[in-house]
């Protein structure tokens, strides 16, 4: 019953807001129409008193104009025929006709807009009426039009039916979503891998299982949408606890008004939530009750609506050029391997730009981006230890759009092949190492150096901070610039983009804290958790294997 009341209130509030917004917009356009179409107030004399006399220099009707260049005679150019003579009556008629035609077209456009707004407002009003009638029927009361008999069921029945059926159908769909989800009962699952786990949360923290490499098992809800989601859930729960939901509850609350508890956020203990991607999000919240051993638990469900088609477009990438820009300092062996991959991806043309200065990754990429003079082009900022496929380049083309979208792929970072395959002698060719598995690498979700964007967007955003020297820092700076702009940042794993493993050196000159961080990063890139554990316990494992071998030999001798 509580969920039904909340749903009805939400629908009524949404429809009334939309209707009010359309009414306000319609009134604003009507006022604009009146203001534009009414004659403007002016202290100037009427047109008949300002007609130019012979020899006048009216800027629109013959005479001289302060412009340079040649023109037709009599239109402000250098022609001698009528350069200073009086304008004819035909010129005034042409001017007045042009002004009249402009006003007529403008008035016609405003009338069309007002008619469209009126039509939309009428449609929203019918929808609101349908929602109200469906709510009345749900509460057992008669709907409008049923009390007056058959006389009120004439020509408007067919028009109102569609508006009434839409909210009712939506309500039925949302109720069906609730019945399908695992809310009141479980469903049979094929294995332990099919379980959708819950996350737990308090007022200040979220405790989560799916962390990746940048999230923590316990953290504050950093993302704004997550904070607002949990805040709305807590607010709805408190409102439900403090507002009686039925007539019986209202009477009991009135009788025990002095003794009843008013729930506040401090009474919230914890909650759990999970999302079934095709059904909705479930929330279970626990509050302190009237006594130490009493609790109040609320279950809320946010159903997902039906799918809506947003766009259906054809994208042709045939003529979309990509400029791959790679900063390089030494590392000739990696560059040779990169150029082999470069040719494998059907690239033929390249340009080497040599700089005689201290190396800066950001400055190198910035110079490469600005060096292109062939118009707006798609840029792919890359590094020499990156392997990409031809399919990735199409992904780059599809996910970047000038003035609208930039693409920040999450690449798959390779572990040390010598650890993966047991020894350096067993390591296969690079192409055979590009396997996306738990023991071969990880999604490098903390890196932002590889990106696809159009040159115009890169220049408009301000480019790299070229004051940053060496490697690191410039990519995050550029990434934040895009996040602070109106461009859509597409961040997604890319199955055709790999970071090839290379040994990481931690210099002895580093301070202790930085050296420790460097070694942690080196360990993270070296192998998986399980593989590092096997390396750590390798002596214990080898001793166990020796004992097993001795045991087998002794058993063989006895037999």
UniProtKB/TrEMBL annotation:
GO molecular function: glucuronosyl-N-acetylgalactosaminyl-proteoglycan 4-beta-N-acetylgalactosaminyltransferase activity; glucuronylgalactosylproteoglycan 4-beta-N-acetylgalactosaminyltransferase activity; metal ion binding
GO cellular component: Golgi cisterna membrane
Keyword Nucleotide-binding assigned: no
One BP annotation, GO: chondroitin sulfate proteoglycan biosynthetic process
EC identifiers of the protein: 2.4.1.-
InterPro entries assigned to the protein according to its UniProt record, in alphabetical order: Chond_GalNAc, CS_glycosyltransferase, Nucleotide-diphossugar_trans
Membrane topology of the entry: Single-pass type II membrane protein
Gene3D superfamilies xrefs: Spore Coat Polysaccharide Biosynthesis Protein SpsA, Chain A (3.90.550.10)
UniProt biased composition (Gly residues): 142-159
Membrane-spanning parts: 12-35
Pfam families xref list: CHGN
Segments for region (Disordered): 54-90, 128-166, 239-259
Chief site of localization: Golgi
Localization annotation: Golgi apparatus, Golgi stack membrane
Compositional bias per record (Low complexity), positions renumbered to this chain: 80-90
Chemical reaction(s) catalysed: 3-O-(beta-D-GlcA-(1->3)-beta-D-Gal-(1->3)-beta-D-Gal-(1->4)-beta-D-Xyl)-L-seryl-[protein] + UDP-N-acetyl-alpha-D-galactosamine = 3-O-(beta-D-GalNAc-(1->4)-beta-D-GlcA-(1->3)-beta-D-Gal-(1->3)-beta-D-Gal-(1->4)-beta-D-Xyl)-L-seryl-[protein] + UDP + H(+)
Keywords per UniProt: Coiled coil, Glycoprotein, Golgi apparatus, Membrane, Metal-binding, Signal-anchor, Transferase, Transmembrane, Transmembrane helix
Keyword Repeat on entry: no
Family, as annotated: Belongs to the chondroitin N-acetylgalactosaminyltransferase family.
The protein's name: Hexosyltransferase
Organism: Oreochromis niloticus (Nile tilapia)
Gene: CSGALNACT1
């Amino acid at each position: 019953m509580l969920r039904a009341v909340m749903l009805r209130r939400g629908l009524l509030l949404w429809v009334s807001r939309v209707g009010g917004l359309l009414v306000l917009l319609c009134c604003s356009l009507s006022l604009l129409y009146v203001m534009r179409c009414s004659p403007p107030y002016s202290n100037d004399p009427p047109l008949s008193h300002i007609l130019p006399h012979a020899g006048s220099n009216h800027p629109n009707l013959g005479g001289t104009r302060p412009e340079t260049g040649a023109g037709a005679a009599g239109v402000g150019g250098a022609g001698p025929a009528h350069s200073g003579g009086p304008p004819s009556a035909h010129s005034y008629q042409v001017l007045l006709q042009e002004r009249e035609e402009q006003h007529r077209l403008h008035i016609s456009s405003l009338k069309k807009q007002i008619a469209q707004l009126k039509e939309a407002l009428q449609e929203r009003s019918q929808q609101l009426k349908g929602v109200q009638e469906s709510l009345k029927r749900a509460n057992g009361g008669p709907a409008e039009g049923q009390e007056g008999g058959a006389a009120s069921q004439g020509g408007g029945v067919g028009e109102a039916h569609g508006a009434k059926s839409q909210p009712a159908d939506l309500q039925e769909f949302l109720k069906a979503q609730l019945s399908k989800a695992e809310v009141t009962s479980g469903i049979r699952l094929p294995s332990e891998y099919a379980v959708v786990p819950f996350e737990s949360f308090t007022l200040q923290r979220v405790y989560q299982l799916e962390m990746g490499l940048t999230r923590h098992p316990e953290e504050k809800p950093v993302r704004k949408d997550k904070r607002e989601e949990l805040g709305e859930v807590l607010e709805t729960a408190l409102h439900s606890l403090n507002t009686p939901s039925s007539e019986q509850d209202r009477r009991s609350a009135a009788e025990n008004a002095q003794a009843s508890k008013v729930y506040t956020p401090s009474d919230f203990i914890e909650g759990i939530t999970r999302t079934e991607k095709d059904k909705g999000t479930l929330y279970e919240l626990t509050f302190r009750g009237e006594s130490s051993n009493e609790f109040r638990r609320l279950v809320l469900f946010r159903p997902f609506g039906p799918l809506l088609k947003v766009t259906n477009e054809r994208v042709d990438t045939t003529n979309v050029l990509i400029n791959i820009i790679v900063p390089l300092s030494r590392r000739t062996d990696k560059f040779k391997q990169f150029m082999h991959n470069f040719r494998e991806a059907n690239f033929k043309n390249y340009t080497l730009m040599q700089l005689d200065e201290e190396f800066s990754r950001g400055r190198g990429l910035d110079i490469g981006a600005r060096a292109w003079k062939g118009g707006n082009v798609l840029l792919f900022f890359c590094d020499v230890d990156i392997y990409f496929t031809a399919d990735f380049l199409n992904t780059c083309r599809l996910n970047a759009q000038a003035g609208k979208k930039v693409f920040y792929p999450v690449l798959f970072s390779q572990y040390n092949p010598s650890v993966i395959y047991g020894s350096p002698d067993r390591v296969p060719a690079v192409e055979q190492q590009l396997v996306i598995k738990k023991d071969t690498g990880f999604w490098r979700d903390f890196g932002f150096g590889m990106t696809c964007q159009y040159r115009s967007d890169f220049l408009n955003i301000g480019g790299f901070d070229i004051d940053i020297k060496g490697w690191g820092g410039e990519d995050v700076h550029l990434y934040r610039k895009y996040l602070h702009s109106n461009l859509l940042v597409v961040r997604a794993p890319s199955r055709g983009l790999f970071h090839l493993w290379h040994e990481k050196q931690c210099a002895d000159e580093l301070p202790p804290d930085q050296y420790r961080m460097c070694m942690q990063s080196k360990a993270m890139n070296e192998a998986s958790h399980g593989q590092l554990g096997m390396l750590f316990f390798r002596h214990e494992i080898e001793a166990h294997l020796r004992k097993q071998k001795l045991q087998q030999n002794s058993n063989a001798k006895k037999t």
